[in-house]
Design goal:
about 40% helix, eight-stranded parallel β-barrel, about 270 residues, binds zinc ion, 10 helices
């Protein structure tokens, strides 16, 4: 039996390497996979592609590129080189998009961070076009505006794409990062077909760790179904990607966790 439109990020089941995750997801009927780049290590890109194909898995995203702002020109250049490599890797394994965690440096002002991000994305567009892989800007919760991403709302993504054009740049909308936004639904509607990725997990209270204390869908306070419905109303017909960073859940039995993900997707995400 397959679970329609459900994909899982390899980071969600962090204890599993790619061969294990691919076998387990596939065995449980999951058809999509979001591949984090470090999971590609140790095999050639061709072998990685083959591995996913052998398990009937569709790679929906390669995670991640971005981290554009830097204090020096040479670091900015290495970031661009790395993003172009990410596009090449995505193309090689058949992933249609690279998710961008845009980056930020606390030493720089927010306007300067945002300027460098826009310039960085602009500088990768030609390579995106050449590889046929899209750049998916993922706005991050503002608690990360100091050092992970100075792009924090869908509105900012829409403004950037207004500027750069939407031929090769889209948006990965992750409920964890956008649920609090009072302009959420109007910006989803404004984004329309720009939304090319949809990520889910939940916000738990209290959140004990900024990065690795995310919840399984249904454990927290995010109205995931309403956001999901609004995203689907834009015409989005891709996978829902389960992306959970959780020290607590990584310490549990991952086979049971996988089953819990499928049940939670059914109960709290599926429309
Ligand atoms: Zn995400």
């Amino acid at each position: 039996m397959s679970v329609p439109l459900l994909a899982i990020h390899t980071m969600t089941t962090k204890p599993w390497d790619l061969p294990t995750a691919a076998a387990k997801y596939s065995g449980a009927g999951v058809r999509g996979i979001g591949v984090w780049r470090q999971w590609l290590d140790g095999r050639s890109l061709t072998e990685n592609k083959q591995l996913l194909e052998n398990h009937g898995l569709t790679p929906c995203s390669l995670v991640r590129g971005g981290f554009f702002p830097s204090l020096t020109k040479s670091e900015r250049q290495s970031a661009l080189d790395d993003n172009r490599r990410a596009l090449d890797e995505a193309a090689a394994i058949g992933a249609p998009q690279v998710v961008l965690v845009c980056g930020a440096k606390p030493e720089l002002s927010l306007p300067e961070n945002r300027k460098q991000i826009t310039e960085g994305i602009a500088a990768c567009i030609d390579h995106a076009a050449a590889t046929g892989v899209q750049l998916a800007i993922e706005p991050l919760h503002p608690m990360y505006a100091d050092c992970r991403s100075a792009i924090n709302t869908l509105g900012q993504c829409n403004d950037i794409i207004d500027q750069l054009g939407d031929a090769h740049v889209g948006i990965a909308a992750d409920v964890y990062h956008i649920w609090w936004d009072p302009h959420l639904y109007q910006e989803i509607a404004r984004a329309g077909k720009r939304i090319i990725g949809f990520h889910v997990c939940d916000w738990i209270t209290p959140t004990n760790d900024f990065l690795n204390d995310r919840g399984l869908m249904g454990e927290g306070c995010i109205d995931i179904k309403s956001i999901h419905r609004a995203v689907r109303d834009t015409g989005f017909n891709g996978f829902t990607e389960v992306e959970i960073f959780s020290t607590r859940l990584w310490a549990t039995d991952q086979d049971q966790f996988l089953q819990n993900i499928i049940t939670a997707h059914q109960n709290y995400v599926a429309l």
